[in-house]
Amino acid sequence: MVSKPLSINDYRRIDQNFGIGAERYPMPILNASNLLLEAGLAAAALVSILTLLMLISRSKPVRFVFRRLVGDPTSSWLRATMKEELGDLCNRMSKVEDELKPNGGKSLRDRVEWIATKVDK
User: Fold this and answer.
1) Measured between alpha carbons, how far apart are the two ends of the chain, in Å?
2) In whole angstroms, what is the distance from residue 37 CA to residue 18 CA?
3) In which band, very low, low, confident or very high, does the pLDDT at 43 lie, cut at 50, 70 and 90?
4) Closest alpha carbon to 101 in 86, 92, 111
5) Could you tell me if residue 1 is inside a domain?
6) Is-contact 107 101, C-beta < 8 A?
7) How open is the CA angle 89-100-121, to the nearest 5 degrees?
8) Which position has the higher pLDDT, 44 or 74?
9) Is 120 a residue whose pLDDT tops 70?
């Protein structure tokens, strides 16, 4: 059985019988008051969601779980990284301090003082 294409009248009849289409659900008119109303509704929804999240985050069980899942691993990683970086920085600083102490001609300070005595003469 071959079906024939639907005509405009067929589409209108379907629309009237099943309640779909532009006649049943017209497009809203876009004007400033409607846009302002929709923006206000969106802002109110956002504020209510943020308030709900804030209330949930204040509960002790949620804070405990967050601290266990996020806070503890992050803080231990940060401590390890800082120890490593600070240890390296301390080693480098001690090398610079050693260069600034006089030690008989091999340090930077000894060389600068030797050059200063030659320039002053």
Assistant:
1) 117
2) 31
3) very high
4) 111
5) no
6) yes
7) 155
8) 44
9) yes
Domain extent for 102: 60-121
Residue 2 in any domain: the answer is no
Among left, alpha and beta (phi > 0; psi -120 to 50; other), residue 48 is: alpha
Same domain, 16 and 47: yes
pLDDT digits (tens, 9 = 90+) for 59-115: 888 888 888 888 888 888 888 888 888 888 888 888 888 777 777 777 788 888 888
Claim to verify: residue 70 and residue 52 sit in the same structural domain = no
Altogether, the residues listed in the chain come to a count of: 121
What amino acid is encoded at 94 in this protein? S
Q: Is residue 40 assigned to a domain?
A: yes
Residue 108 resides in a domain = yes
pTM: 0.35
Q: How many structural domains comprise the chain?
A: 2
Residue 62 pLDDT: 84
Residues 21 and 70 in one domain: no
Angle at 24 between CA 19 and CA 29, to 5 degrees: 155
